[in-house]
Amino acid sequence: MSAAEALPDGFPVGARFTVVGGAGAVGRLFAERLCGSGAEVTVVDLAPAAPPGTCPGIRYLQGDLGAVDERLAHELARADAVVLAVPELIAYESAGKLCELLGPRTLLVDTLSVKGPLVEAVRAAAPTRELVGLNPMFAPALGFEGRPVAAVGLNSGARSRQLLALVGRWGGRVVPVAAEAHDSLAAATQALPHAAVLALGLALPALGIDIVELASVAPPPFTTMLALLARISSGNPEVYWDIQWANPQAGQARTALADGLRTLSELVRNDDGAGFAEAQQRLRGYLGSELDRYTAHCAQLFTVRESTSTAHVPTGGNTDD
């Protein structure tokens, strides 16, 4: 443990953190970083045993928030902070009971992709409970370093501030936002692009072209889209379902996506090249000061793809890359 990563002064020496759902990817990310920062960490999960490679300093307790037994109740009551790394619905349904079990000064932390419903549930159950909602805007395997972590606070106090400082010491770029603003941003940055990629994947079979044939002539944009499709379709369905289902603003994002496609179709159907050019101009205006940065990023991305990719030669059977 480096001095830069040590627990801040807002927590006692050897502070007790309980990570519920800590055997999952997000929970494990937080559990291991907290352990490395000197906290006493207990992982609670439905799984019967800790996953391989778990930090040796982490205690493991099999437990279920939906059926809290005496051991789990004791663990929750003694914690200085409880981190919820569980599906959205479980967090919402257990919020009231959980607030009853926690000590009066215990910090409640969540890692949900939607914040509004949990904030309201906690506010109703325990109006003075200190809550900090963290949403790492990246896959856990990528790590915190240099990546944004959206942060929503309720009754923010010393422990909330110190936890955010700790995330910053891990390399995360903390971005404070209100709960409603967070869910709008999550709908635009997660639900909308995921929906676009999934829609592409659902549309491809209708073209009747074999994926190997498509991949053999794929230009960089399509190759990138296929990579995103592979990543999403290979991921945990529960994670991607929660992003679409749990966010009350995700439906609006999907509607906007469908409206955009209809607008494009109308321009083509009406042979409106001038309207298409005007639409492009509006898009450049929307990007504004970010236009040049993302143009350069795309060029770099495509250069990396082209220089590292190799031609895929069909072999007549499935192969692993």
TrEMBL record:
Domain Prephenate/arogenate dehydrogenase: 15-298
PROSITE patterns listed in its UniProt record: PDH_ADH
Keyword terms of this UniProt record: Oxidoreductase
InterPro entries for this protein: 6-PGluconate_DH-like_C_sf, NAD(P)-bd_dom_sf, PDH_C, PDH_N, Preph/Arog_dehydrog, Prephen_DH
Domain of life: Bacteria
SUPFAM superfamilies to which the protein is assigned, alphabetical: 6-phosphogluconate dehydrogenase C-terminal domain-like, NAD(P)-binding Rossmann-fold domains
Pfam families given in the database record: PDH_C, PDH_N
UniProt entry tagged with the keyword Cell cycle: no
Similarity comment text for this entry: Belongs to the prephenate/arogenate dehydrogenase family.
PANTHER family: PREPHENATE DEHYDROGENASE, PREPHENATE DEHYDROGENASE [NADP(+)]
Entry protein name: Prephenate dehydrogenase/arogenate dehydrogenase family protein
